[in-house]
Amino acid sequence: MLTKTQKPSVLYSTYRAEPLILQRYSQPNPIWPAPCKRPYLRGQTAQSRAKIASLHRANRQHRTTKRFRSNRHMNLKTNFAQGVAAIALLAPGLAWANDAPAADAAEADGVNNIVVTGARSAGRTVENSPAPIDVLPAETLRQANQASLLQALNDTLPSFNVPNMPSYGINTFIRAGQLRGLSSGHTLVLINGKRRHVTARLGVNDVGVAAVDLGLIPLSTIDRVEVLRDGASAIYGSDAIAGVINVITRKSSEGGELSARAGQYYQGGGWVQQYNAGAGVGIGDGGHLYVSGQYIDQKALFGDGDVPGNILFYFPRNAAGQQILPGGNASTAPTLPAGATPDPREASVDRHKIFGAAGGVPRAQVASFTADLGVPLGDAIELYGFGDYTHRKGRSPQHFRFPSRDQNVRAIWPDGFTPYSGIVENNFSALLGLRGDIGGGWNWDLSSGYGQDDIDTYVYDSISPSYGLNSKTDFFLGNYRYTAWTSNLDVHKSTEEGLFGFGTDWSLGAEFRRETYRRTAGEEQSWGYGGQPILDGPNAGKPISLSDSGSQADTGVRPEDAASDDRNSYALYAGLSLRPSDAATLDLAARYERYQRAGDVLTGRVSGRYELARGFAVRGTASTGFQAPALAALSFRQTGVTVNQTNHILSVSSPEAQALGARPLKPERSTNFSLGFVVQPLDTVNLSVDVYQVRVKDRISQIGAFRESTHPGSGVLVRAASPTFGPDDSISYLVNAGTTRTRGVDVVLDGKFDVGSGAIGWSLAGNYNKTKFLEIADTPAVLDRFNIVMISTATQAQILYRAPRLKGIGSVKWESGPFSAGLRGTYYGKINRSYTLTHPAGPNTIELVDVGKIFIADLEAGYEFSERLGLRVNVNNLFDTKPRQVPRNATSRWPFSSVAYVQDSPVNPLGGFYSATITYRW
Question: In the chain, what are the domains?
C-alpha cells in the first residue's frame, strides 16, 4: 500500500515514451524522482494534468508521516556486509518451506492507488519491491488491440499464456490463462486487492480446475493491472502458487471517456464492434463514483473450405436402386463403395461446411456494467465499494454431421446438420467496505463481497435420434452456478522506528469465505433415451445404441450427474516487514487456513531485497503455498457420448468411484524459490532477471480412462461398481496424480531515449520455463492388474507442454507531438502437442510433435486531433502468420481436410486482423 506521502508508481507512465505494449516497472526507473515539479509534457491531455494535480494535492493534504532515511552513501564493503546479513535472515525460511498450503488477501489504499507488492507494507513501490511486478496501465492494455483483458495480458506479458481454443464447444467462450507455465488455477485474481470469484465451469484449460474468467472483466473499467510474478499464498491465500493478478479499477471523480472500435480479419468477416463509455462524478467532500459500460458484438468466421466431391452426403445406391451403406468412415468420411452409384442429390448439395479444421471465431455478444465508489465519512473513515455485471451470449459450431449417419433423423435433417453449442451467462460481483484510522498509527479495513457466475448451456440445430420424429432440435443442457461470499478484516501499522529501531510494518487479518456450487440437469431429451428405432435407410428398424442417447454434439446433464455443494473456509494471517535501511528490505508472512474437507494448512513466506550499489539490487523469495480442490471438483460427475461409446467421469466421493479406487482429493501443495537482480546500467535503461523454481505436490488431474475393450477384464469390475454401466463404458475420475517441478527465468530489458522533438521507448522481455514430473502416484491397487495408467500420456503432455518453452516479446514505440507509432514482435518457442499417429505398417503410436517456433508482428499508429479526440489504427498479426498444421497421419485430423491447423496453438488460425478505434475524452 502506498503511504499518503508517496506518489503511485503508475504516474511514471504519463511521462515516458513507453513501448507499444510493455510498460514495465520491474526495476528502478527514476524518470520522475519525488519530490519534483510538475513536468507537463507536450501532447499531455487536460484530463491527465488534472489527475496529476489532484494527486499532488492529495499528497500535500495527507503528508502525515516522515520517511525514514539512512545514509545512502555507505561504502561497498558495508553494503555487501548488510547484504550477507539479509541473505542469512532468509535462510531459516528456506529450511521450513516444506509441502504446505496457501492463503488470501490484498492491499487496499486509503486515498489514491495500491500496488501489489507481495507484502502488506506502507510505502512499498514497484521500484523497491522484493518480488518482480509488472504494472500495465489501461493505455498499454488498449494498445494490445484485444476485446478482452485475458487476451490483452497474453499479448503483453511473456510469462502469461493463453492457448487458442478450438472453435467449438462451450470452452470457446470460457477461457483462462496460465502464469509461469503452471495451471490456470495457480494464479490468484484480485479486484482492487480483493479476491475475485471463479467461473462456474470446471476444467477450463486444465483438468479439474476452476479458474477466474478474466474475459468477463471489461477493459473500460480498468485503471491498471498489476501482476506479481511470484508465489504469494502466505499473503493472498489459496491459488497464489504462480502469482497474483490485481485489477485496479478507475476511481475518477470527474471527466469521462467514449470510444468505439471496429475491425475484421484480412480474409474478410469476423467483424467485431466494441463500444465503451465511462464517467466520474464527485460525491461530497473528496468522494467519487465512476461508472462504465462496455458492449462487444463479435460476428462468426470460420476458415473451412468445401467438402471434396468424393465424400458422400447421402446413401449410395446399388444396381437395384436401393440405398446401401457408404464405404469408409460413415461419421467422418463416407465414400462410394465399389459398384455403387451416388445419390443424385450429391450434384447439387451445398458442400461448404464447418469441420473445425481451419479454426475460427464464434458468434458472441457481451454487455458489461461496472461501478466504483469512494465516500469519506468524516476525517478518519471512508466507505468504498465496487461491482460489475456482465451478460454474455454465444453460439459456437460443432462439426457438420453427414445425413447418412444413423445418429440422425433424416425426416428432420435430410441434408445433415451443424449443431451449435450455446451459452447464456450472467456474472455478477459487488463489494462494500469501510476503512480508516483507529489511533496509535493503526489503520483498519473491513469488507465483504459477493460474487456469482451463472451459466445456462444449450445446443441448437441438433437432434436426439432415439426420440424419432418427436425429437426437438434445440435443447437446454443444464445450468452451472458458483457463488462466493468473502469477508475480510485487516489491521495495519507502519512506523519509521519500530522493531530493532528499523522501519517496520505490522499487519494482521482474518477472512471468512462461503462457497456454493450447483449443477442442474438438462431437459430430458438432451440426455434421455426415447426408444425409437432408426426410421429409414439401410439400417431401418434397428435400435439406436444407448450410447447415442441425448442430443448430438453436446449431451445434457443427467439427473444422476446433477449436484449441489457448499463449504466454508477460514483464515488468519500476519505479516512483518523490516527496513534496516533504504537499501535493505525483509518481509515475513504466515497464514493459517482451514477449508472444509481439505483440512488445516499453514503457509509461510520470506522475501528480501538489498541494494548493493546505487542502481543495482538483488532480491529473493522462499515460500510455501497450496490450492484447495475446487468446490466443483469435489462433486464433479459427467456422462458424455462419443461415437458408439458412453464416457463417465465419476465423482471421487461416489460409491462407484471409490469401488474403482478413487480417494478424496487432497490440496495441491507448493514450495517456491526465486532469486533475481535489478540493475540500471544507464539512467534510462533497466534490466531485471529472475530465476524461479516451483514444486507442486499432489497435482490434480484425471486418471487414464479405462474400459473393457482397451483394458480386458476391467469391465467386470466396472459393472460390479454399478449395474447401470454398459459392458464397454469408459470410466475415469479426478486424482492427485503426482509431483511436478517447474523451473524458469524471466528477463526484462527496457529503456527510452529522445529523438528530436519526440521520444522512443523500447522493451525486450522473455520467459523460459520447463516443467517435469518428479513423481507419478501409484495406480490404485484395485486397478493395477489391468495395466491402467494413473495419468495418460495426453494428459501429461497437457500439464507439461501447454505453455511454450520460450516466449519473447520485443516492442518499440515512437511519440512525437500528437503522433505515435509502435511495432511489437512476439516469438513462441517450442510447443509440444500429443498426437496419436497412424503408420502404413505397425500399430498407432502416441508422439509429441513440436507445433511452435512461430513469430508474429503487430503494428499500431495513433493521432491526437486535440486534447479530447484521438484515433488509433492497429494491425494484429501483420504478416498473416498461421499456426502449424496437424500431422497428416494424426487420427484427430479429418481425412479429407487440406488445411487442419493446430487448434490450441497460441496463434489464431484466421491470421491477420485490423481495426480502428476512436476515443473522445472530457
Answer: 9-308+355-921 (2.40.170.20)
